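In practice, a research group might receive sequence data for several interacting partners and want a quick structural hypothesis before committing to experiments. The following worked case mirrors that situation: the sequences arrive first, and a predicted assembly follows.
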Amino acid sequence: MLGKTAGGLFWMFRYLERSENTARLIETGLRIGMTRSVGTHDEWQSVLRTAAVEKLYRDRHPTLETGKAIDFLLRDPANPSSVMSAISTARQNARLVRTAITREVWGAVNDTYLILQQALKNPVSTRNLNEVLDTIRQQSALVRGATHGTMLRSDRFDFCRLGTFLERADNTARILDVKYYVLLPSVGQIGSNLDNVQWETILRSVAGQRSYRWVNQGETTPIGIANFLIFDGRMPRSLTYSVRKIDANMAYLEEAYGVRHASHDMSAQLMERLETETIDSVFDYGLHEFICEFLNDIAGLGRQIERDYRFLE
Amino acid sequence: MKAGVILGQEVRDRWQQQERRVARNVPCFGMEDSRSARHETHGGFFYGTDPARHGDSVPDDGPGTTPSIPTTVLQQVVKTDNGHLMGEESSIFDEMAGKAGGLRRPYESYRNWFDGENLSDLRRKSSEAELFFRRTGITFNVYGDDAADERLIPFDIVPRILSQTEWTRITKGIEQRVRAINAFLYDIYHRQEILKAGRVPVELIARNPAFLPRMVGASPPGNVYTHVVGIDIVRTAEDEFFVLEDNARTPSGVSYMLENRETMLQMFPELFTRIKVQPIQDYPTNLLRSLTATAPRNCTGECTVAVLTPGVHNSAYFEHIFLADGMGVDLVEGSDLRVVDGKIAMRTTEGYKAIDVLYRRIDDEFLDPLNFSPDSMLGIPGIMDIYRAGGITLANAPGTGIADDKAIYSYMPDIVEFYTGEKALLKNVPTWRCAEPEALAYVVDHLEELVVKEVHGSGGYGMLVGPAASKRERAAFTRKLQARPMNYIAQPTLALSTVPILTEKGLAPRHVDLRPFVLVSPQQITITPGGLTRVALKQGSLVVNSSQGGGTKDTWVLGD
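A structural hypothesis for the assembly, expressed as tokens:
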């Protein structure tokens, strides 16, 4: 496979994942805004920070306003992580790798683009926002379904999966990082239930509120949430789950090509750390430091994969 | 600038004067390969920004987004309501009705079916077709993300139908012509017998920018120069077919031919069970077979084929994807390639892999910055040296443009006769070479009924469409003609045949032309039954321009 094609698949799926994550963040912000009794715009600041676009937003808008934040996250072309930008970039990459994806996958991505382009042509009113977010969710499911149902399980698929899970690991770690102070036991909430709004922000951002309750029987503690998002291998957006998938796909590539690269060692190290650490050791070490290192490692792994598989000249 | 479908070369040439860096005379359809030259520094990469790496950073603006859209005009552009030139509308040959307003045989079964259909159902089908095209991504002129720049070439659901007899006649003529073109190219780059015999003037070749001195003495594998050819044909009567243009460089449009059929099969399955239409779907397979058959001699074992595209911003990018996909080969850009051990190799996830045959969809002058245009970022430095050493096959061979140059066109009947010993089966459109004093005098006298074109598309001021030009424009053009007559040729306007399209009120005749696609291998010439029919959707118009309603049709050749 061409290195360029591998890179195109990798980034196509990173952007698809990102578009979904951004949509979920908007939903979270909206939900919090509606259920909160006092009026501040804190939730949007934390949403923008989680999406790593806070500075970009501030450059363009002097004040933090719900409508502006939503529009910025949903459709602003100046925001590379906005839902529309991410879908456009994903589609451009899909065009680039058109020969490496099935007709169904291309069709699903192209449809998504065409539908959203129509839906996001003008600013979306709060009244219609849920409908638009629903559409995004449905379309993401369609793309995922087409990918799983029709793509050959070859190196092509491995690069798609690497993109998906690197982006997801990055996203979940970012949510943890932005909210780490909420989860810190030192803030003085040891043993107490978290503020409803805070835990909901976190769990909604990863579509995990139900799952968390199933797993923890409703007990919402900082340590419980951190453990769930970092170590629970059953939770499809946790760090452990994502890294396990990355590691597995790296192994498939090693098997297919018969070559082990530096990136294999890096992903193995990441996996090993998640397998040996516990939530207690992480809190002892420092949650913030742990997350920062993880984000760095994930970024480093992405760069190494790019080099090892010759995405670029 | 208007978006559109390229038909003749003249408008292209006007474009090239405005945009000198764009390659000359690229035969193409709607989506001009060379157009991407303006984007070449970008390489068409659409990777993304990594938030983990860049934080809040904004990505590069990415590839340029200035729309540069080729215009298009059907050659012999005239308005048919100009009775002086075209005669009465009734004198125009309709391929369904014939001259008498009846029903020609090839259309009988279709017309039977059509008359039993409900018009509004068909209208609805027609709009479904557009949705189908958009969803498949068959758009052209795509620049950046803005969907406003993604256009569809309108598709008309009424097929253009040719009988087996008509088709046999056309293919015999095409085959003869394509053989002659390859023999001519071999001769021109070797012994130049035709020049020695005085059948083609030496200066026509020597001063022609389409002639590549680097190709002199080089022999492509199997002596195939033009692996893929598109011959543009127009019809004026039951038995009158003319070649409008030979496209021997990188003819495009074949993806439209295939997708048009695919759309028809989806929309009207019952029609294809009633009427036996010769299939065309094996084109990609035949293309691959044809390309593989011309692999270099040093190619051992399995032969690796790739398609070379100028990149994602090229307006024919869809077609490049389509063909690579259809053949199951890689679609590469110059930035994926480099010279490794005397071969051209592509960068894969496992290292560099040698390519044996490159179906290139970029023009000669962008192919090799070391040998041709030094500022081209599209090509591969050193590929011409590898090519000359027999390390790779390029399809089409560099330098084939000398065979479809407009100056050469008027000599085609002589060329065919010289190499085949037979009279040309397909006629040329009569052409006045203004370099000849008598011809010049005639052209100047009859300017209002002629189309005057530049020969090389360089150093002039574009073409003149006599019937559409004002008195003043004609006077100004006359001065140019007289100043540099050797720069021009002139042709009459033709009464192009019509085929009905579906309008709100039912069937209505519109002018058409035809581009059959020809594959050449050392063993055989394969012509896909049918080709691409282009149609002027506007009543009376001969202008096939998407902004003025130019479109395409599925083309059927009936089975026996």
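Before designing any experiment, note the following. Chain A has two domains: 1-150, 152-313. Residues 152-313 of chain A form one domain.
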